[in-house]
Amino acid sequence: MNRFRTRAWGPADKAVVLAVGVVLLAAVAFVVVRLLPERCGDGLEAAGKECVGVTAGVLPGDPELEGLIRGVADENARVERSWTQPENGQPRIPYVRVALMMPFTSDASSTMSTEQIARALAGAHAAQLRANAQAGPRYQLLLAHNGRNMEHWEPVVARLAGMVDDEAPLVGVFGMPSSTPDTLAAAEALSEHRIPSIGPILTSTTMEAGYLFKTSPSNRLYAEALREYLAENPGNGTGFLVSDRRELDSYSADLRDVFLARFGKEYGLKQRQASYLGLTGEDEGVPQRFSDVARSICLTRADTVFFAGRDHDLPHLVDRLASEPSCDHGKPTRILKVGIGMDPETTTAEITEQLRDAGITLVNAASVDTRSWTADKQLPAGPRGFLKQFEKLREKLRNDPAHEQPWGNKPLDDGYAVMYYDAFTVLSQATGRAYDDINGGRKETEEAAGKNGAPALPRHADVYNTMVNMTILGTRSGTSCVNCVRGASGTFGFDESPDTRKWAVCKPVPVSEYPEPDSDARTGAAGVYRSYEEIFDGSCP
Question: InterPro entries per the record (predicted)?
């Protein structure tokens, strides 16, 4: 007889099991509800393995970012204390909030690498510190994490929209680092709430929403700068188009269309083109396969390759071209590309050696060329101010042994730090101007603050109305920058013309070659193209 045979369950047994099950489920639900907000922190919520949302405090991002994130949180706390608990009899200083909406976590296929996130955050924080050292209101920099692939934008926008009427109001948003459908949807949602936003590094011409400003040139404007370069350096007229075929990458698809429209006929791009699967995104297939692409380029003897893809894919194309036996490396080849700056991934010692050995030159139309700053000791005030503040921030982190500097050994080359600095500067400049206007001028504002009064703070609508008037003005003697932006990336402005669609006006678009040719082998170079310069007959301030 089996002593362990299970007896039949009666109604009482089933009732006990059911009751225990209900209690366990309730306990699990209680633990989940209690622990997730505690794990994520105030203003954040769990989305998969990430905490998304908005905070003025410490955000749980990539571990390498901890020092920078803690620095922002400390500055935000100082700004709040300057209003709620000023020290040593100092007057209360009001403050507003600006949100940095972008990923703060990354993986191998995400929108931004940890190094890119660090460089962008460092630029934004440097601009915050500089603005808070000047007269006028202070600024909290809110960290608005929308997920490593930016797909969790809805709860972020909802929370931001609820801050516009706070005592310390939200006046604007910037960040949004990639031209994707999620980015456009987020910008459109912010526009529905009439919150001005800035895409510091958005370039796809599809990135247009009612309240969305762009401080980088569009792909079409980049192409115009390359057109001026090619007018001086046409090559043999045989071109080849290489494009990323990921369906959700609006940037690459738009750049491909722009290249075809602008250079397709002249360089025969419709007859000579190939595609590849880029690294960013989750499309099925092995990414960054360039063997067939390289063979096709060499077979056609094209000397001008138009690259419509992401910078982190480009080294793999260079590697395949340099090692392709059917290529005639005795004849020069140019790869024309666009980018915010020159990504450090494309200028490593290994890639540089491959470029030189294979006779390949990268021709890059950019938002900013910081690599040229080292050779120019007479920098304008915009880049000088940026460099001073950025170096102070680097020194502060350098002296913090608990945290490494995660932005790599070329923190300025890719332009992220500069463009995020400029985006914050646009919002703070517009806020400061509106603040002075609303309160009747700086002197009256300071007197009210000194009497412990409460100067009126501008709201998001006031900031937007100021931004659309940060214009370049045409005068009888040329152009004038009265209300425009003298940024680290150059002098530019905005308007609400249907012709410019809130892309920066008179923005410099430098074109550079890498590796840099010897002085006696330099090709002809036109002057630096300025976006929409034709509006002012080619004259920009």
Answer: Peripla_BP_I
What separation in angstroms does the CA of 64 have from each of 49, 392, 413?
17, 19, 20
Enclosing domain of residue 288:
219-366
Decide the pairing of beta strands 529-530 and 508-509: antiparallel
**What CA–CA distances, in Å, run from 4 to 10, 45, 302?**
18, 49, 81
Query: Measuring CA to CA, how many Å separate 531 from each of 193, 218, 220, 519?
Result: 29, 9, 10, 28
- Domain end, chosen from 438, 463, 488, is at 463
Q: In this structure, are 227 and 337 located in the same domain? A: yes
Residue 137: name the closest of 450, 453, 485, 456 by CA: 456
- Both 183 and 294 in one domain: the answer is no
DSSP secondary structure string for all residues of 201-212: T---TT---TTE
Number of folded domains that form the chain: 2
- Structure tokens given for 314: 């480009």
268-320 pLDDT, tens digit each: 999 999 999 987 766 667 778 899 999 999 999 999 999 999 999 999 999 99
Reduce the DSSP state of residue 512 to 3 states and report it. strand
Residue ranges, the chain, pLDDT below 70: 1-38, 281-284, 375-377, 401-404, 441-453, 519-526
63 and 199 belong to one structural domain:
yes
CATH of the domain at 361: 3.40.50.2300
Radius of gyration of the chain (CA): 26
Instruction: Spell out the alpha helix ranges (H) of 268-369.
Output: 291-300, 314-323, 349-358
CA distance 218 to 391: 29
